[in-house]
Amino acid sequence: MSTPCTKPDRTLTPRPNPAKRITPKGHQDSYLYQIRNSLYINLTDRCTLTCQFCPKHNGSTQVKGHELYLSKRPQAANIIAQLGNPAYYDEVVFCGYGEPTLRLKALLEIAHWVKENGGKTRINTDGLGSLFHKRDIMPELAECIDALSISLNAQNEQIYQQHCHPALPNSFQAVQAFIKRAAELIPDVQVSAINGLEGVDVIKCKAITERLGAQFKQRELDVVG
User: Fold this and answer.
1) Partners of 183 in the beta sheet?
2) In DSSP terms, which residues pair with 67 in a beta bridge?
3) Measured between alpha carbons, how far is 161 from 165 in angstroms, rounded to an integer?
4) Strand spans (E) along the chain
5) What is the spatial distance between Cα 158 and Cα 16, in angstroms, rounded to a whole number?
6) CA torsion angle for 53, 57, 61, 63 (degrees, to 10)?
7) What are the backbone angles phi and psi of residue 191, rounded to the nearest 5°?
8) Per-residue confidence of the chain (225 residues) as pLDDT tens digits?
9) Measured between alpha carbons, how far is residue 45 from residues 10, 42, 187 in Å?
10) What's the pLDDT score for residue 12?
């Protein structure tokens, strides 16, 4: 088994300049937050993409009123200690301020704990986890993840580059390979693109998704959470 890649760290989305953001006085990091009856885990602030439609690149670090800026990345034990009964929620979702698969070890530890305690798990991801770690991570995810929500974002590489600005080469090809592999091993795989984003053809994105064996979900521009 190859070792996880560490060098791409320097090319990933950096922390926002604190001078450009406003947080409440006495701000404390939010590692868990609830939307409807789903519990979300804010695991990291790093990302393999710099999407121009992402709120954090447009001056906002909030989702549905939850402040998601992280001053430090939480340890798995800290998250587990705060989870309570995961079966209370419809699902426990790895999402938050960055790309959760970048912290694969912590994600897997937490997800296994959630499953062992009766909860359901989902990951919201850009689909570049295998590319980043330089190995197929899907078998590891399949052991403890019930659902994946993967952002395809574009119907071709040109539009993908225009809006997502990936840090890693061959990202558009990698996300498609990730979707195909996910559809083989994960029970519920939804793939999304944003209607209203310049140049994005959601009909073609839907066709790509279905060819890869997953379900398509159309998102709307500026609607988050």
Assistant:
1) none
2) 62
3) 5
4) 32-35, 38-42, 62-63, 66-67, 91-95, 121-125, 147-151, 188-195, 215-220
5) 26
6) 0
7) -120, 135
8) 333 333 344 346 544 433 334 445 456 788 999 999 999 999 998 999 999 887 665 555 656 565 667 888 899 999 999 999 999 999 999 997 789 999 999 999 999 999 999 999 999 999 999 999 999 999 999 999 999 999 999 999 999 999 999 999 999 999 999 999 999 999 999 999 999 999 999 999 999 999 999 999 999 986 665
9) 13, 8, 28
10) 63
> Cα–Cα distance between 134 and 26 in angstroms, integer?
40
Contact at 8 Å (CB) between 152 and 189? no
Give Cα 6 to chain centroid, integer Å.
19
The one-letter amino acid code at 37 reads: N
C-alpha span between 15 and 69 (Å, rounded): 9
Q: Which amino acid is at 149?
A: S
What letter would DSSP give residue 155?
A: S
pTM: 0.85
**b/e string for 164-193 if b means 16 or more Cβ within 10 A?**
bebbeeebbebbbbbbebbbeebebbbbbb
Specify whether the CB–CB gap between 47 and 126 falls below 8 A: yes
Calculate ∠ Cα 138-79-123, nearest 5°. Answer: 30
CA-to-CA separations, 188 to 51, 88, 217, in angstroms, rounded: 25, 20, 12
